[in-house]
Amino acid sequence: MKNAEAGLQLEVQRQLGRCLLRLQQYERLLKAMVAGMAVAGPPEQLQAVNDRQTVSIRNRTLGTLVGMFTEQNLTAASADMPVEPGEDTGTNGQSSDASWASTRFTIAMSSDCHAETKAGLVELVTLRNDLVHHLIERFDISDEDGCRAATVHLESCYKKIDGHLQRLKTWASSLAESQKLASSYMQSKAFEDMFIHGINPDGSVCWPRSSIVECLRNAEAACQADGWTPLHAAIRFISKEHRDQMPSRYGCRTWRQVLKQSEQFDVRSVSGSSGVIGQTWYRSCAKPFGQRQYDTPV
Question: Per CATH, which fold does 207-297 belong to?
Fold first, then answer.
């Protein structure tokens, strides 16, 4: 073999190796993104869920990864993009009382850009398969002309692969920033109030899942007599266990207002003798809204 031909063949090998290394970098980053862009499960198990997803896609081909990515994580945005329930909203057999959390990040773009991006990713998969399986079928690298043609082709391929990688890095950087912001919000008082205590950002309260209603139910289980719970005993019980649970936190002035406004309890008043303050009793109510029993005198 002539020295010139040997040198050209080494250049083909170098160019091919450079392309394949770039493709491996692309696949590695894409796997990390696909594994982490949608996670669902009990809050304390989300990291374990993400780890399992990472393992499950470890040996997926680039074609499979691109299919998952375009199907699940790329979307054509509209002015008012509807929020549709995904397959991860279920509890996967968990009790309805169990905590369940899900996060999903998507990359939105115009319809034209979306179609162009999908086509470009399909082209990348075809390019990868061609390099891995068909390069020496297309180019005869036993002679100088074939080597030169292969080199030109591989230089073009590298530019395309690198362009895809740089775009993926941009998406990954935006994803990391979004996840950082989401994590910061999930550690904020506003998130704790909404997710844990049932207090929405606008000050309204989701009473059925609010912490103060849960405290009243716990007090009811501990303090009830003949199916009814004295409110003063419940207040003492709650103040020992949960000092932060106060009516004012939920926009109410009194505990009686919490009982009535939450619509989760029957309430009755026991009149006191002259000069003696009456007592308020309550019990959990299973009646539909609008059929609660309030302030029944005894």
Answer: Nucleotidyltransferase; domain 5 (3.30.420)
